[in-house]
Backbone:
C-alpha cells in the first residue's frame, strides 16, 4: 500500500484518521479534475456531449461497483437530498423504526413528516433489539446507517438479510455514507431495499456526488413526484414514462463531481475491493484490541464481535490537543475523540497513536 499512500498529500505530514469527516483527495484525481476543467475552459458548450457521457458512465460504474442493476442507480448530490425525495413519495401511514442518536440526516426526514416513529437503543445487542421491535411493533420501515457516525458501530449485514427474509414486507432503507468504500458489497444480494450514500468520505470522490440504489421489487411501494426536463434527457415525450431512478435526477448533474465519483470508483477497484476490505479489517481489529486494553471504548463497542474502522475513544480537550500537536488529524464527537482509519492507514500509525494515549493515560 505504500505506493498508494504517496498519492495522498494529506498523509505526508500527518497521521490522517479523519476519513469519517472527509476522504482526502489524491494526485491522480486532482489531475483528472484539472484536465476536465481545462477542457471546459477551452471548448465550452462543445463539451455537452462529453458531459452526458460522463454521467452515463458514472451510473454504470456505480452499478458495477456495488452490484446493482444500472437502471436502478440514481445519481444524487448527497444522501440527504436523495432520502428527502424518496420520502415525498412514501405513504406516511407507515410505522418506522430508527436508531437512537443515528445520523440526523437519517432520522430527521422521517421525524419532520407524519410517520409514526419508534426508536431502538444502540448497544452491543443492537440486532436482537431490532428483531424484537420489528416483530412486536409491526414495523413497516427500518431506516438506519450501516455504520454509526459517532462510534463506528456497524450493523451486521447478514442480520439485515435474515431480517428481510423473516419480514418480506419490511422496507429496509440504509445510509451507507460511513460504509460504502470500506468493504465489498453486493447490493442485489443484500437485505437492503434502498441504499443511499454521499461520495465525499470513504469513496474519496469529493463533495457534490452520491447515489441511491433501489431494489426492483420495492418500486411500487413509492410514488415519486420529483421531475424536471433533465430527467427525460431533454425529451418531452418521456415525461410520463420516467423510470423510477430518474425521479431522483430532475436537474442537471455536474460532470466534474460525478466524473470524480467514477474516477474514484475505478481507483478503488484498481486497488481491489477485497484488498481494501482486508486491510480495513486488520486496522479495525488492531485498533479495537489496543483501545480496549486501555479501557477507552464503551461496552456497546467493546462487547460486539464485528466493528468498522471508526472508534470513539474516551478523551478530553487536553488529549485532543495532544493528538493534534502530534499531527494526528481526528475529531471530537460527543464526549470523546473519534479516530477513523481507511486502507491507506497503517498498523504502525495505530502504534504511534497508542503510544501517545499510554502517556496521557
Residues:
Amino acid at each position: 500500500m505504500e505506493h498508494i499512500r504517496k498519492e495522498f498529500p494529506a498523509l505526508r505530514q500527518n497521521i490522517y484518521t479523519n476519513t469519517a469527516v472527509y476522504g482526502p483527495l489524491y494526485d491522480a484525481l486532482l489531475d483528472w479534475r484539472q484536465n476536465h476543467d481545462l477542457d471546459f475552459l477551452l471548448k465550452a458548450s462543445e463539451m455537452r456531449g462529453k458531459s452526458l457521457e460522463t454521467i452515463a458512465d458514472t451510473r454504470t460504474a456505480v452499478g458495477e461497483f456495488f452490484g446493482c442493476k444500472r437502471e436502478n442507480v440514481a445519481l444524487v448530490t448527497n444522501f440527504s437530498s436523495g432520502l428527502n425525495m424518496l420520502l415525498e413519495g412514501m405513504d406516511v401511514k407507515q410505522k418506522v423504526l430508527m436508531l437512537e442518536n443515528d445520523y440526523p440526516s437519517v432520522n430527521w426526514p422521517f421525524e419532520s413528516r407524519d410517520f409514526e416513529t419508534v426508536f431502538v437503543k444502540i448497544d452491543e445487542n443492537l440486532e436482537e433489539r431490532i428483531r424484537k421491535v420489528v416483530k412486536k411493533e409491526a414495523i413497516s420501515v427500518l431506516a438506519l446507517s450501516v455504520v454509526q457516525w459517532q462510534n463506528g458501530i456497524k450493523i451486521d449485514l447478514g442480520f439485515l438479510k435474515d431480517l428481510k427474509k423473516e419480514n418480506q414486507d419490511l422496507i429496509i432503507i440504509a445510509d451507507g455514507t460511513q460504509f460504502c468504500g470500506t468493504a465489498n458489497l453486493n447490493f442485489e444480494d443484500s437485505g437492503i431495499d434502498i441504499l443511499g450514500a454521499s461520495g465525499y468520505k470513504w469513496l474519496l470522490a469529493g463533495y457534490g456526488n452520491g447515489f441511491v440504489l433501489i431494489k426492483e421489487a420495492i418500486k411500487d411501494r413509492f410514488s415519486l413526484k420529483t421531475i424536471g426536463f433533465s430527467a427525460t434527457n431533454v425529451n418531452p415525450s418521456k415525461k410520463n414514462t420516467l423510470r423510477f431512478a430518474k425521479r431522483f435526477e430532475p436537474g442537471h448533474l455536474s460532470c466534474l463531481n460525478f466524473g470524480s465519483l467514477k474516477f474514484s470508483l475505478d481507483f478503488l477497484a484498481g486497488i481491489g475491493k477485497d484488498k481494501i476490505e482486508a486491510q480495513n479489517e486488520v486496522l479495525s481489529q488492531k485498533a479495537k484490541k489496543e483501545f480496549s486494553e486501555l479501557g477507552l471504548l464503551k461496552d456497546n463497542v467493546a462487547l460486539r464481535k464485528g466493528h468498522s474502522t471508526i472508534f470513539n475513544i474516551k478523551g478530553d480537550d487536553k488529549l485532543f490537543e495532544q493528538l493534534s500537536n502530534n499531527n494526528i488529524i481526528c475529531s471530537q464527537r460527543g464526549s470523546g475523540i473519534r479516530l477513523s482509519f481507511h486502507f491507506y492507514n497503517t498498523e504502525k500509525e495505530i502504534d504511534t497513536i497508542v503510544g501517545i494515549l499510554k502517556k496521557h493515560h
The mean pLDDT is 96.
